[in-house]
Amino acid sequence: MTIRQVSDVRISPDGARVAFVLKEPADPKKPERERDTNIWVVPADGGAPPRLFAASSRGDTSPRWSPDGRWLAFLSGRGEPEGTDAKPKSQLYLMPTDGGEAEALTAGKGEVTRLEWSRDGSMIAFTVTDPPTEEEEKRRKERDDAIHVDHDVKQSRLWVLRLADRKTDQITKQDFSVNGFDWSPDGAEIAACVSPTPKENDAGYHSRLVVIKRATGEVARTLSDRLADVGCTVAWSPDGKSILFSESTPNGVASWPALAPAAGGPPREILKDYRGTAFRFEWTPDSRALVTEGDEGEAAAGRRGERGAHDARGSLRGCLRGRLQPQPRRPGHRLPRRGGRRAGGGFRPGARAAGAPPDHPQPADRCAAPGGPE
To answer: 369, 257 in Cβ contact below 8 A?
Structure first.
């Protein structure tokens, strides 16, 4: 492949810079070699060309800005192999955004798969896949490569690193896999999607949305047992009152966004009657609105909608309502899909593609949530 692929676009907290992952074309002379994956940074106004921020032959991914914009944490396999591994596993690294050396924050036989900064920038939560057991290491050394299907499952554990002293604590030790998570605004709790195993069937059909106490790892409460997507859509509102997640429809075929009161209580579906598939979400800073993207037949639509207000029972009054910004989409693409993704820093409220037509008002009946608008 000769195309350079851009992914995981992240806007800095001040909106001045954009970090992204760039996968380089394959080398036709070395087809067996993995494609290089590096992190680049570019001014958001396009005033200067992109600059290479982090690069290694092992691949650098998942750039995440610190809340003050001074640091980028990311994942990289630039270390040395552990045990019987043929190549190093991804670990957590930290680097100043104005340049410097990358600092390894983790090391070990388990692979780091996700990371999120706490809102105050003092901690980083991350997930680590269980490393091989001593028995598995022994079998590898003896060249016993037999695979016992659906056994020897490696769970994904939640860890937290404190930046002040660089110490790490394992948060979850229960027999479940953490497939995604988000911090509470005060840093005391973490909302997480958990499943019995990381296998796709378990993650897609047997996941729960739980709130975990950071200090003890205890599951404080379960907010839903109807999570819809393997990738885990979960986003804690900035005001701390609500948690957005992707909920499975009653027939289990598709999904819709839902809001759960962070303190506990029945979730409330939003966009339930929306005739499309909403799949990217981001809270606005005041917690009063969500930015989302969806597929609607031959158009991909960006929407900014009001969340509404919660009453004493935690129910939602109002609905997501906003404007569509259609963009070309492949013909005939109208199938609902199960699952979703969190927008992260890559979707900007009010942004419109060049050449896109003016905003079109969205009929209220297409975004009506139960209870109707106020």
So the answer is: no
Q: What is the pLDDT of residue 88?
A: 82
pTM above 0.70, yes or no: yes
Please state whether beta strands 242-248 and 234-236 pair in parallel, antiparallel, or not at all (unpaired): antiparallel
SS3 343: coil
> Tokens 């016993």, residue?
144
Helices and strands counted in the chain (H then E): 2, 29
The residue-averaged pLDDT of 151-157 equals 88
Helix, strand or coil for residue 366? helix
Report yes or no: 243 and 221 within 8 Å, Cβ to Cβ. no
Segment 73-122, tens digit of pLDDT: 999 998 776 666 667 899 999 999 998 899 999 998 899 999 999 999 99
Distance of CA 67 to the CA centre of its chain: 16
DSSP H/E element including 18: strand 17-23
DSSP class of residue 211 equals E
**Amino acid identity, position 206:** H
Two structure tokens written together for 128: 């680590």
> Cα 47 to chain center, whole Å?
29
Cα 83 from Cα 154, distance rounded (Å): 17
- Give the angle subtended at the CA of 236 by the CAs of 231 and 239, to the nearest 5°: 165
Neighbours of 369 (CB within 10 A): 27
- Count the residues in the chain: 374
- Reduce the DSSP state of residue 164 to 3 states and report it: coil
Nearest to 90 by CA among 100, 101, 104: 104
In whole angstroms, give the CA distance from residue 369 to residue 257: 11
